[in-house]
Amino acid sequence: MAQTQPTKPASLAPKAKSKKRAREDDGSSRKRRKSAFEHEDLDLDLEASLNKKIGFLDSMLLADHLAQKTRRFGTDLKPVELSALDISPNAIKDSSSFSEPRSLENLPAFLEAYAENPKKLGDAPKENGSPHTIIVTGAGLRAAEVVRAVRKFQSKNVTVGKLFAKHIKIEDTKKFLESHRTGVAVGTPVRLSDLTESGALKLDKLERLVVDASHIDQKKRGIMDMKETMIPLARWLSRTEFKEKYTDPERPLQLLFY
User: Fold this and answer.
1) DSSP letters for 139-177
2) Rounded to an integer, what distance in angstroms lies between the CA atom of residue 157 and that of residue 78?
3) What digits encode the pLDDT tens for the residues 229-249?
């Protein structure tokens, strides 16, 4: 009588194949993620503390970049709240033609390149606490560095405003704004908002907002890469009085990303 050869359960082969495919898919996914991270790292100049990608983004790409960052960090916000934080591409001044590295040394030249009258950057409105230019940074230490970089726009009667919390009490900043003419001011989003709500910082003479967007710290993070800075930044840029002025045909408020 012929002996019947034992057969392996039919289900083992598909399982083995399924596990193999899963491993391959997982490996491919890791490779894609690694490739994406490597591509992002190519844009980072750690020696210069710069994310070079920002300088190549036009208005449309910057608006999309902002929206992505807002939704990434605004997971606790409702959809209608997130939509209110969006900035239209038409509100953003395209500065991708500025070819110099976006370092502190080149910041004055950047401001002059997009000012209608560069000589007026060193002037200030007659009313105290009414800057024509506000540069928004992610942290007090960085803000102090930016202040030093734009000192060329300071004179005997016009002072660069220090609107951040690094060793400066908010009451002292209020007194400064009440008693000084300031053309260019540098601040962090939360402190800027607090000073505006208190009435010490006046925005009716404001001509341009500049976001210190290219700078990164030692952990490769910029102002738009952390929840504690991105969400306050989005709220500051999307203030009602700003949105109304961004596209004003007669006296538009410039929104620049440096």
Assistant:
1) SHHHHHHHHHHTGGG--SS---EEES-TT--HHHHHHHH
2) 46
3) 999 999 999 999 999 999 999
Q: b vs e for 167-198, b when ≥16 Cβ sit within 10 Å of the residue's Cβ?
A: ebeeeebbebbeeebbbbbbbbbbbbbbbbee
What is the separation of C-alpha 217 from the centre of its chain, rounded to a whole number of angstroms?
13
Do 208 and 131 touch, CB atoms closer than 8 A? no
- CA triple 22-28-29, angle to 5 deg: 90
- Average pLDDT of span 91-112: 97
One DSSP character per residue, 15-72 reads: HHHHHHHHHHHHHHHHHHHHHHHHHHHHTEETTTTEEGGGGG--HHHHHHHHHHHHHH
Report whether 136 contacts 236 (CB < 8 A). yes
